[in-house]
Amino acid sequence: MLKQIKGLHHVTSMAANARTNNRFFTDTLGLRRVKQTVNFDAPDVYHLYYGDEVGTPGSVMTYFPFPHIAKGRPGTGEVGTTVFSVPEGAISYWGNRLAAKGSLEIKVDEAFGEKRLNFFGPDGDGFALVEVKDDARAPWTGNGVDTDHAIRGFHSASMRLRDEGATAELLKFMGYEEVDRADGVVRLGIPSGNGADFIDIETMPNISRAQLGAGSVHHLAFAVENREKQLEVREALMDTGYQVTPIIDRDYFWAIYFRTPGGVLFEIATNEPGFDRDEDTAHLGESLKLPSQHAHLRSYLEQHLEKLEG
């Protein structure tokens, strides 16, 4: 069993409109835009990152906003709900805030003994806020949400699979342990993680496979401290039979990718070097940053990419 993985690093999803996406995460959810760059493989498309003050691993939601992309079709083989941690007593505040900002189908329930607020993003993305006692992670409060209510980072991600078995075994190999089962969902947690510690698996054997599009999670990324730990994980996964990519430089972290038995794309990302490698912390996300291979496209991209607010 691996010991290097410390919880979620980031979650990357698809969107249809960059301005709408930016407004939702900064204005509605109160997160900080910590980086605006472009998709490595499609440089005419933004890659936007939102999180806490510095983009701490375990807090970062990222998006590829493809203009005119079709809406995703929910189903199995995907992440159904991305879940954020908020302080105890914050749910009523968030219910009122989300309703005032136009969010639809807001619903309060309880799962695994935790009070949570379920809602949808602008592309039908499934989200929830869970009240967590004594989450010591520092929130970002620069967008108007006070400390008593602000998002601390991720709590968990929930996957919809036709069968839990092989993916649950993979997660256990990655260092997760089963912590509970309830209402057809198994919860796995990483001991001594970074706060973004849980993966829930919902088994839905009679549901068709999901189709990727706007509102879909593209991949889940798990955190390791550095490239040395990442290489250890890569070798162990390959020895177990997984097809793992070479290490890829993503400017703000190094990444490897592999497809899980249930169909979800996993990434292992390093905590280093971080989002302040090319911007001062006080000005993260304010200017367009380009991968070196796309630097020659700056003039075109600055005219072509939709201007963001804030």
UniProtKB/TrEMBL annotation:
Keywords: Dioxygenase, Oxidoreductase. GO terms for molecular function: dioxygenase activity. The keyword Oxidoreductase applies. This is Ring-cleaving dioxygenase. It comes from Rhizobium oryzicola. Residues 7-132, 153-271 form the VOC domain. InterPro entries: Extradiol_RC_dioxygenase, Glyas_Bleomycin-R_OHBP_Dase, Glyas_Fos-R_dOase_dom, VOC_core.
